[in-house]
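Render this sequence as a predicted structure.
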Amino acid sequence: MNLRRWLTVGIGVKRWLLLAFAGLLVLAVGVAHVLRQVTSNLEPGTTGMSIVDVITLQFLPFNVRGLAAGVVGVALFLYGAYRLVRALVDPFALWDRDQPMVEVIYQKRFLARGPRVVAIGGGTGLSTLLRGLKEHTSNLTAVVTVADDGGSSGVLRTELGIPAVGDIRNCIVALADAEPLMAALLQYRFPVTEPEGPAEPGLPPLRDAEQLSVGVGGHAVGNLLLAALVELEDGDFEEAVREMNRVLAVRGRVVPASATALTLCARTRDGTEVDGQSRIARTDDVDRVWIRPDVVRPTDDALAAIGDADIIVIGPGSLYTSILPALLVPGIAEAIAASGALVVFACNVATQPGETRGLDLADHVDALARHGLAHLPDIVLANNRFDASTPSGWLGEPVRLRWPPASASGAPRLVLDDVVDRENAHHHDPLRLAAAILGEWAREGGRRRRPSAARIARAS
């Protein structure tokens, strides 16, 4: 079974085996000519001639000799080629030894021919999507928001002046081919402990994010590793993320939307303004969000990936605090509009307490419209299964399927599919979500197309 797997379509081995075998055939013809010349003067019955008779299978019927020699030759060649590859590759193997090498090579070859996919957003939703997509393609780029200001990311941002690293860490873990122990290590968060001894007179005790600055308590190992890489790369945040991708053998790439630390701001429907991603996430009735500073550059890696993409997926993730901050980086939306990719807006399966409380499907699309982004999606993908298990203490609700959005003119095409995690109504199922997106791409022709003139015009 293992040997047959080596010869399956797509692994890229048969052509070279055939070329090597053809070379052996030519060599065999040459040896036959030399043997004929050497034995031309030997008398029948001599010791030398007897040896030649055995080598050339003269003891077998004439019509069997060629077949027998061919079968033995092919078997020896294939077994020798297989053992040679194992001898050369095994000392450098980084994969799980329980998985056959041929399966790993086949997977790599297959994934390398997958579509070029760019996923934009942040948070748990983006990580979930990446876990599903990486089973279909290695040509995968995650463009991640850097506006988080809470917890470990917020402390590192304040103390070191670097963009938020938490969502980048989660996406790298989702795409990494590293050992499970390494993934667990990157996600490990040091416990927060109360400082020993009484507090200084007149000062309140340390709480939450303030206490993180005392030491490593509350920080994730992956966040600290990224922060250290930024220091090693002389403050170059983009290069630090590239190195993190390389070190952890990420299947695809994770890139920041911008190398600048961004501050997210919001205005509610009653005119109240709120600063900070962590505060906005707990705020009801958000109307608009924007980022500061006003002048900020997208990363070159993000723009290049968007320009080359076959599929661009916006979301899933927190609408106002993960998806929109990435799209609002100047140049990102324009690059999406100018691309020849199929653009899919993967709507959340559930609302979130605070920023999206009570929003239905049309409200999610209308939020894009209020930020001048309704022209981007070609397809809106929404969940149509509502019997998934509800998590204990869940304060959200399934996103209701009201359609079309308020601005129905030029609205994207709606696609409904079963993409929810059956065990958790708050999350997508990564494999179902990826299959739905790639299925729509295949139905659209499975190739890049000319950018929509209307999309480009509305972007400009």
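Summary. The chain has two domains: 2-108, 114-145+257-459. The first strand starts at residue 117 and ends at 121.
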